[in-house]
Amino acid sequence: MPEIRVTPLGAGQDVGRSCILVSIAGKNVMLDCGMHMGFNDDRRFPDFSYITRNGRLTDFLDCVIISHFHLDHCGALPYFSEMVGYDGPIYMTHPTQAICPILLEDYRKIAVDKKGEANFFTSQMIKDCMKKVVAVHLHQTVQVDDELEIKAYYAGHVLGAAMFQIKVGSESVVYTGDYNMTPDRHLGAAWIDRCRPNLLITESTYATTIRDSKRCRERDFLKKVHEAVEHGGKVLIPVFALGRAQELCILLETFWERMNLKAPIYFSTGLTEKANHYYKLFITWTNQKIRKTFVQRNMFEFKHIKAFDRAFADNPGPMVVFATPGMLHAGQSLQIFRKWAGNEKNMGTVGHKILSGQRKLEMEGRQVLEVKMQVEYMSFSAHADAKGIMQLVGQAEPESVLLVHGEAKKMEFLKQKIEQEFRVNCYMPANGETVTLPTSPSIPVGISLGLLKREMAQGLLPDAKKPRLLHGTLIMKDSNFRLVSSEQALKELGLAEHQLRFTCRVHLHDPRKEQETAMRVYSHLKSVLKDHCVQHLPDGSVTVESILIQAAAHSEDPGTKVLLVSWTYQDEELGSYLTSLLKKGLPQAPS
Amino acid sequence: MKLYCLSGHPTLPCNVLKFKSTTIMLDCGLDMTSTLNFLPLPLVQSPRLSNLPGWSLKDGNAFLDKELKECSGHVFVDSVPEFCLPETELIDLSTVDVILISNYHCMMALPYITEHTGFSGTVYATEPTVQIGRLLMEELVNFIERVPKAQSASLWKNKDIQRLLPSPLKDAVEVSTWRRCYTMQEVNSALSKIQLVGYSQKIELFGAVQVTPLSSGYALGSSNWIIQSHYEKVSYVSGSSLLTTHPQPMDQASLKNSDVLILTGLTQIPTANPDGMVGEFCSNLALTVRNGGNVLVPCYPSGVIYDLLECLYQYIDSAGLSNIPFYFISPVANSSLEFSQIFAEWLCHNKQTKVYLPEPPFPHAELIQTNKLKHYPSLHGDFSSDFRQPCVVFTGHPSLRFGDVVHFMELWGKSSLNTVIFTEPDFSYLEALAPYQPLAMKCIYCPIDTRLNFIQVSKLLKEVQPLHVVCPEQYTQPPPAQSHRMDLMIDCQPPAMSYRRAEVLALPFKRRYEKIEIMPELADALVPMEIKPGISLATVSAVLHTKDNKHILQPPPRPAQPTGGKKRKRATEDIPDCKVLKPLLSGSIPVEQFVQTLEKHGFSDIKVEDTAKGHIVLLQEAETLIQIEEDSTHIICDNDEMLRVRLRDLVLKFLQKF
Q: What is the DSSP string of B513-570?
C-alpha cells in the first residue's frame, strides 16, 4: 500500500529548529533545516542521525527545501551539509538564497567570536553549502528528478518566504513554512491554488489566537511611540535586521511625514542597511502597492530614517532607534538598553525577562540594572492566526492536515477545529514521531483516442443516466500502460478473434406461412423493444440489433414454425432475452 | 491541429494554434514598418517638413497633393502614422481562449486584439514582459498623442488610386486595414487581461492542454512556450538568443521531443555579428564626440540599450569620454532604468550574483549616480536647461517617424560633424532616413540583433530534434538581397513547412492516445495475464467519467443483487441494455479435450465428425450440434437456456477474453 510518511526532527509540537522529513512515493525530502534559539547544546540542531545511521545523507535524501531565511528554518544548514555531509540539491527562492548566507555568517560570528564556541561551522562551510543551492522562482515547476517535482508559492512571512508543493505522480504534500494570510505594509498575503494535496503541513504559531486587526496594532504602536517622543523620551525598538524592521520603518516613516515630526529615527548600521538594499532589489517580492509605486518612490529609501552611530545614544532629546538583535540578549540593542533603562521617560519593547515584569536585572559583572523605562511588548511577527490557517486549509483543500511549529496545547485546539470544520484528519506529531498516511494514487494510462471517442460519443446519447461500461484491454509492456479496444489489442498482438455463435431453435405454434410468422415476430418485437433497432429484412428475416431471427417450417408438424435465433457471444444478454421472450409465444394477431 | 498565420512579419509574429479543444494565439506582434510610409511627426513645427511639395501624378494631376508629399524623390503620406495589424478576418478572434506572449516586442498589437475583436480569454506573460511591454506601449502612445495632427489621409488608400502611386506605397499590403495607434485606456484594459507567469510554470488550459513558458535568452522575461498534452508536444520558439547578454540563458533542453517546433523571431541581420557591432558602435561614438560632434542613437527604451550603456560604462573612461554627457530621453526612461534593476530572478547568472551582494545588477545605476547618464521624460523641461554639446542622446522612436528623435534629426542633420548610429534592427535605416534627405550628418549602421542566426538554428534543431519544423516562408529561402547565400536559410530534414500571412496550415501529426486515470479500486480488481514475455494484458470493464477534459475510469457498479424469488421474473422483464459489451474472444478449441470435458460434465452419446475446416461435435440426446473451427465455434441447440449456458461456459474455458 503506498503511503506518505512524515517525521518532524524539529518543530514537532515546538517552535524552533524546523526540520521535517517527508517520504512520498519512495522519495525522501527534508523540509527546512533550522536551529533552536532556546538551546546552546546538541539540541540546537536537529538530530540528523535519525535520517540514516549508516548510509550517506545524500543517498537517502532526494532534496532539501528551505522555506525562508529565518535561522530557525535554515540555521543548521551548513552543519547539515558540510559537517554531517550532504551533497544533494538544496532548493530555496532567490531572496532566501541572497539573504540566508548573511544571516548564517552573523549567527556564526556570535556563536564563535562572541561566545567562543568550538566545532562550529566556518565561513567557508557557509559558502560551500550555498553552492549546493538551486534557486527557484515562484510557481516554477522544478523537476528534481524524473518523478519528483516541487513548486513554490508566495508565503508573505518575510522577503522571499515560500510555501512548497512536493509532488510525485498524483500524490502531493504542501509545506507552508511560515506564512501570513494578511498583507502588511511591505509584503503581500500568502496564496495557494486549490491544489488538493494529500497532506498539508502547516505552521501553527498562532493556533489559538484570532489577532485583532493589524491596523489597530499599528495605531497602538504609533500612539505609544509618539507619546514617548512627545514627552522627550527615547524609544528603543529591538528588531531583527530583516523582516519586521522594514515594515516598522515604513510605518514610522509615513507617520513622521504625515505628522511632520522632527525627532530623529535611527537604524543601527551594518546588516540593517544592507537589508534595506535587498528589499529594494527584490521589490517584486513585496506587496502590490509598493511594487506599483516604486518608480516614483522606492518605499525602502527612507527620508526620516538615518544610520545610527554609537555616540548618538547619549544625545539629549527624544529619538527612536531600531537596533539589533531583536531578543535584546546581546549587541547594540543591549548596549542601548543599558543606557536608557534607567529613565522612566524612555520606552523599549520586547526582551523576555523584562517583559515578565522583572524590573531588576543582573548583568554580566554582577551589576544590577534597574529598569525604570516603560516596556511594551508588541507582536508584529507575520504568522497566520487561527483564522488565517483555516483560510489556507480552505484554499488548498487537503485530504489531511499536519501541524508543526507551534505549542502542543494550542495545536490540540486547532486540530479539533480543523477536524470539525473540514472533516479531514489532522495530526500533530512530536519530534521523532512518525505519521503514516496511506494513499491510493490512481494509475495514469494512455487510452487510444479511437476507443475514448467511441465511448464519449455514446455517452452523449439521451439515455446516459445509467452508468455505461467501457470495455477495453489494458496492454502492459514494461512501464508503458495502454488501454485500447479489444479489437486493437488482438490486432497488435497478432491474435485472431474467435467467434462464438449460438443458434437456438424456438418452436412456435403457428399454422400460417413462414413469412407471416416472421411478420408477427417483427411486430411483436417492435412493440416490446422500443429502444432497440428492430428490422424486417426483404429476405423475410428479422433482426434485432445484430441478432438474426429466421422463421422456418417444421419438418413434421405444419402447425408449428421453428424460429432460428442466432447471435454472437458479444450479444449474449440480448440473445438470451429474445429466446425467452419468444418462447412465451406471440400475442394473438388481430383478426 | 491547425495553425492560422495572421502576420507576415517573421519577427513580429501572430499565429493561432488550434490544439485539442483549445484555441491559442501565439504572440501579438504589430508590424510598425508601415509607419515608414508616413512623414515624421515633429515635436516642434518644422518649416522644412511643412514646406515639402505635394505629390502629383505624371500627367500633372495634383488631387493628392494634400495627402502625399515628396522629399528627395520619395513620396510620404502626410497623416497620423498607422500600423499594419495582424489579420483579423482569417479566424473569429472572439474564439481565442488564450494568448501567449513571448517577449515585450511581440505584444504591441495586444490592445487591437483584446479590445476590438470580442476576445474574452486570458493573456499569459512573464512579469518583466508585461512591465516593459507597458513601457513600450506608453511611450508609443505618448509619442503619437503629444503631437496631435489634424490631418488624417485616406484618399490614397483607395485601391484604384494606390495602383497609381510610386513604390513602396504602391506595394504596401492591406492598407485598408491599417490603424492608428491605440489609446492609453485601451492599453490599460488590454494589460489588465494578462495573468503573470514564471518560467517553467505549468499552466493548465481547461484540463486539455498544458502550456509552459521557458527562458528564451533574448530579453528580460522573454519566453518560448511549450504547448503539450500527455502525448503531443508543440514548441513555440520566438525571439531566442544564445548569446550571453543580460537575460537568463535560453532553456534548450526542455524543447526536446517536440512533435512540431514553430520557429519565429530569428535575427533580422543574419550577416552581422552583434559583438562586432557593439565594438563599432563604441568606436564611431568616440570618434564623433572627439571631433566635437553629437551622437544620436535612435532606440527603444528597453532592451539593447541596457547592454550599450554597460559597454559604455566600461568604455568611456578608457576612451577619455568621461566628461561627455549621455542623455536618455523617453517618457519612460526613468521607469525603464528602475525596472531593469528589480528583475534579479530574470537575469543572467553574473547579474544575479551582484544582486546577492546586494548591488544593482546593471552599472547604469552608477552612471546615473555619477551624473554621467541623465534621463528625461522629454526634451522639453529640465533637459533644455541641462543640455550641453557635444553629447550622446539615446531616444526613440527607431523608425524616426515620431518621438524626440525627430527633433534631433532636424537639429543635427545639417552638420557633418554629427552622427546618427542605428542599432535597432527593426527598420531599414535607409528608409528611416528618407524623409530627412538631403542629410549632411554621418549615418552609421550597427544593427545589434542578438536573436538566433541560421548556424545557431541548425545547431539547435540538431540538439532538440523536433519531428517537424514550421516557420515563416522568409526563412526557407535566402534573403532577397543575398539570394546566393544558401547558408542564410533553415536547413532541416524533413524540410520545414512554411507559412505566409493569411495562410492556414494543417500541422502534420495525428493524435492517437489520451491520458486516462484508473482509480485504485479498479486497478486492484484487474487480473493481468502474461500473453507474451514482458507483455501482459488485462481486460477492463469500467465506468468512464469525464469532467473538465479529464478522464477517469471507475469500477463498474455492483449489479443489484436479485432476490431469490423474483430472479426468474426479472430476467424476462428487464430488457437488457445492448450496449453492455461482452469481451472479444481469442484462441482455439482442441476438440479432444473439449469432448473429454463434456464427458466429465455428464454429457454422453457424443459424436465427432470431421469437416473441411474443423469438426462437428454432436450431442445426439440433446439434439445439439457444435461446429468447431479454427477461429469460430457455433452452438446450435433447442431453446434450452440451461443447456446452452452450460455449453457456453465450457467453451469459454478454452478461450481468452479481451
A: EEEEEE-HHHHHH---EEEETTEEEEEEEEEEEEETTEEEEEPPPPPP---GGGHHHH
